[in-house]
Amino acid sequence: MWRLFFVIMLFPIGSKAQKFSADEAKEDIDVLYHKMQQVHPGLFRYQSSEAYQETYLEIKTSITDSISEADLFLTISPLIYQIKDLHTGFSHPKKWRKKHPFKLPFIMAEVEGKNLIQYNAAADTTFLRGLELLEIDGKSIESVKDLLKTNIGTDNGNEAAKQLYATKTLYAYYPKFFELKDSVDLLVRNLEKDSVMNYRLATVTTKQMGAVLARRYPEKIRKNLSYTMIDSTLSLAKIDVTSFEFKGSPFDLFQTKFKRKFKQHIKQAQKDSVEHLVLDLRSNGGGYIPNISKVMKYVASEPYKLIDTMAFNRSAYFKIFSPAKGITPLIAPLFFNKKDSIYRYRATGKPAKKKPSKLAYKGKLYVFMDAASYSATTFTISLLDDMDRATFIGTIPGGANWGSHAGSWYVAKLPNSKIRVRIPEYRIVHARANKPNESFFIQPDISVEYTLEDFDKNIDSYERVLIEKLRAD
């Protein structure tokens, strides 16, 4: 806990914000701790109950005076990140977010150990791509990233995911833990001139940022479920899947458009006689689980099933299946028909019965993945790995090979601060019949490193590495 209090003293936040008495803060901590125990299906998968209780007591006893909402937010963070589950999260209350709408006006990339400005969303166009970021409002970028990495609860403490999120999504994570006003002071280095300079930039809202980036970098926007011929001479094409969410309309409840688009691209790949097909799953955070099967149907090489086991805490029964949901609480036991002392669960135990389509792509398959490939994406990667169907290119994904805590979420609002805590309701175990005991994270067959040369020349490192491999073969 000493590290937490050192951080709060070093980077005080929100001193003029609303304050809560010690008793109010402790009540919020009690509610958070007990909700986690009641609902979370994997609370002690990566930690012991004793360690979690110790953290809870240390945090609670440390509060002896009134505390601001921002400081309370940081103080309770260990009760979230110590679970080591990226599906478990928390956010400031709606009222707070309305008063603090600003984001940092840039997206950053770490390249060969340097934190470089990759995309500029600021009004000041002299804030150039390639500048090395050194400080934000007087705080070194490394100290900022260290705090963010500490407060991101990735699956089993996935360090690659912590590093990527603290860098690539710095613009969004920073204002969650540091006070960000309508402008920000930055210290940067121009690498070409080896000179240091200061910038004061206006901060932006999420909407403003999206509009500016779309206007300035249209060629860098990845369109979900798009098809591209990367290199016709190598017969190399790519289907970009940036999300497992894709609705044709608000009434497309089962996301049938996802299947239509993916099937359309598979047909196009067949028409183009594509010999090497890439599924680009980089930075795909997941989405609608049934869409996994809509992908697997057209790329699988053998029959498959998705889920081995799905379970939830028995103590969370009426949180998940509330009486307000009609007959759901009565019929849920018919689906979750097994139980032990902790869980009610469903174990399929049956052979794989989902078969690849007759249209399924049978050529060589490659998967681009990074540490932000998560949830339904990791699920898909895991199934492909189990059947040795693809060559994996990049880094380890963000999610665990065995499965995840996901499906749906219970949102607890803490009584005084109104901080919202997002708690997964289910434990979902991937169906891995061939390799049930493989490594915790899927390992890449071909590793990729983003180089300064790639950055300077605007080269896609993943495509470069794959093209080099195919040409060498």
UniProtKB/TrEMBL annotation:
<protein>
    <recommendedName>
        <fullName>Tail specific protease domain-containing protein</fullName>
    </recommendedName>
</protein>
<dbReference type="InterPro" id="IPR005151">
    <property type="entry name" value="Tail-specific_protease"/>
</dbReference>
<dbReference type="GO" id="GO:0006508">
    <property type="term" value="P:proteolysis"/>
</dbReference>
<dbReference type="Pfam" id="PF03572">
    <property type="entry name" value="Peptidase_S41"/>
</dbReference>
<dbReference type="GO" id="GO:0030288">
    <property type="term" value="C:outer membrane-bounded periplasmic space"/>
</dbReference>
<dbReference type="InterPro" id="IPR029045">
    <property type="entry name" value="ClpP/crotonase-like_dom_sf"/>
</dbReference>
<dbReference type="GO" id="GO:0004175">
    <property type="term" value="F:endopeptidase activity"/>
</dbReference>
<feature type="domain" description="Tail specific protease">
    <location>
        <begin position="237"/>
        <end position="448"/>
    </location>
</feature>
<dbReference type="GO" id="GO:0007165">
    <property type="term" value="P:signal transduction"/>
</dbReference>
<dbReference type="GO" id="GO:0008236">
    <property type="term" value="F:serine-type peptidase activity"/>
</dbReference>
